[in-house]
Amino acid sequence: MKCRLATSGGERGMALLVVLMATTLLMGLGSGLVLLTITDVRVATHFSGALEAFYAADGAIERVMPDLLATADWNAVLAGAERSTFVDGAPQGDRTLGDGSLLHLTEATEIERCGRPVACGDAEMDAVTAERPLGANNPRWQLYAYGPVKDFLPEDRALSRVYVVVWVGDDPLENDGDPLRDGATPINPGSGAVAVRARAYGPRGIRRGIDAVVLRDRGGLRLMSWREL
């Protein structure tokens, strides 16, 4: 009788151990599934946010095309004296992005010009680098348009929290050494063309950008080149 009781107690102990191990295993599997689900949601959210920012940058270029076409003298744009009708206030100061972070338009412009958020000198902007290989013909990016992308979307689609900024600079084909003026026609191969750079700033640090070159052509504008940054 004592022997059977001991065996019965051992079996109960073994069963309890199996239950505990199975519970631990299931808890681990459950935690792994939760973590995998959270990761998948974050990846999907980042992907959709990046795609939204990409289309916002592309849309910003389309938005400024009519303004560029309406400007008879692009020298005013290249010198920073004329801007698009798509602006959300003065070109100085901070803008609050969709994730609560701040974007300083002046600093963002200097970053485009020479890669740092402080005023760039002529020598820095003329320096030949991998990103700016044209020396004295490197674009002097001028702030041209800026604002929430929802401001130019139809009302039923104006839910985006992406902020867009567009800069304009001299066409890369220019060879006159004066990036603040459009080259004289027909001598300069870059005459009648300007470079346009758009950047989209989305929530969670999402950033996308597009470079394009547009050309005056028969009373309209023609897109000569387009590339994602």
Structure notes:
With 229 residues, the protein is of the alpha+beta class. The chain has one domain (54-228). 39% of the residues lie in helices and 22% in strands. It is built from four helices and seven strands. The protein has helices at 2-70, 74-78, 105-114, 122-126, and strands at 94-96, 102-104, 142-148, 163-170, 193-201, 207-217, 220-228. The longest helix has 69 residues, at 2-70. It is elongated, with a radius of gyration of 28 Å. The model is unreliable at 1-6 (pLDDT under 50).
How far the N terminus sits from the C terminus, by CA atoms, comes to 83 Å
Overall outline: elongated
Q: What summary fits the major beta sheet?
A: 5 strands, antiparallel
Strand content: 15-25%
Number of strands: 7
Question: Could you give the order of strands across the largest sheet?
Answer: 3-4-5-6-7
Total domains? 1
Number of helices: 4
Q: Which radius of gyration do the C-alpha atoms yield? A: 28 Å
User: Looking at the chains present, what oligomeric state does this protein adopt?
Assistant: single chain
Unreliable stretches covering 5 or more consecutive residues: 1-6
Output the structural class.
Answer: alpha+beta
| Residues in helices, as a percent range | 25-40%
Instruction: List SSEs in N-to-C order.
Output: HHEEHHEEEEE
User: Mean of the pLDDT scores?
Assistant: 86
